[in-house]
Amino acid sequence: MVPFCEIEGPMAIAVEAARAFGYWAGAELDLPVFFYDEADPEQRSLPVLRAQAFSSRAPDAGPNQPNPRLGAVAVGARRPLIAVNFFLASGDVTAAQEMAHILRERDGGLPGVRALGFNLADRGCAQVSLNLTDLERTGLEQAAEAVERAAATANCSIGEMELIGLMPESEFARLSEEFVTRHRLSNNDTIEGRKRV
């Protein structure tokens, strides 16, 4: 997966870059390329692409069969998202999956939220993993509060939150001081903050 994110400037620049890269990868690397989100003229999401690739949907560039060594690639243009994991205090994967079901948009949960529940045998706990794809509708703190409520519904508790990658500075600015302190977040956890370092 290769996402081109609109951070500053119009989305059209990210779309143009994604498509140029995709056509290059298809031609030069002999790699089937599927466009998603804004790079796809039909704006299909990554989960939809994964379900349709090679079955009901042909590649947008490159060959029609997976490359024997490299497979295929999804290339998208999108706004920044936040990937965040919540570790349960127990290894109850059923609870994690139940929580993910409550939280994810496609099941009637929070707008712009994709969620999965996993067992992490090496850590002896279960995890709820979220992608927040529309920060204007569901931000990090709002999602974390919903995770806490879902944990209470599933009779479990959250041990720790882990931010994967960076968040936009605009999202960091929306977080309460208490939330930032509790989860040990700083401006270094933002895209713009890292660019300034």
UniProtKB/TrEMBL annotation:
> Molecular function terms in GO for this entry?
folic acid binding; glutamate formimidoyltransferase activity
Q: Which residues cross the membrane?
A: none
A Pfam family of this chain: FTCD
Alphabetically list the UniProt keywords.
Transferase
EC number(s) from the headed UniProt entry:
2.1.2.5
Domain Formiminotransferase C-terminal subdomain residues, every copy:
80-194
Recorded hits in InterPro entries, A to Z, give: Formiminotransferase_C, Formiminotransferase_C_sf, Formiminotransferase_N, Formiminotransferase_N_sf, FormiminoTrfase_cat_dom_sf, FTCD
Recorded protein name is glutamate formimidoyltransferase
- Origin species, per record, is freshwater metagenome
